[in-house]
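Students often ask why inverse folding is considered easier than folding. One informal answer: many sequences map to the same fold, so there is more than one right answer. In these notes we will look at a single instance of the problem. The structure comes first.
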């Protein structure tokens, strides 16, 4: 299966029997990101976390009365 990276537009071939290929076939909302882009985003995110100015905003959990 030929796939295109969402960020860098690089076209790659992946095996048709992999989980990623199945997700891309069955759910069009799923997108593909190549390994280089994924690693680059992970590295830069970790650098921002190390500065101390990076905060993740999580949804507040609503506590039930029961």
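Output (designed amino acids):
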């Amino acid at each position: 299966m030929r796939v295109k990276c969402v960020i860098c537009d690089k076209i790659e071939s992946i095996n048709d029997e992999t989980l990623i290929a199945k997700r891309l076939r069955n759910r069009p909302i799923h997108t593909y990101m190549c390994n280089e882009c994924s690693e680059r985003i992970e590295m830069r995110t970790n650098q921002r976390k190390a500065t101390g100015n990076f905060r993740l905003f999580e949804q507040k959990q609503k506590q039930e009365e029961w």
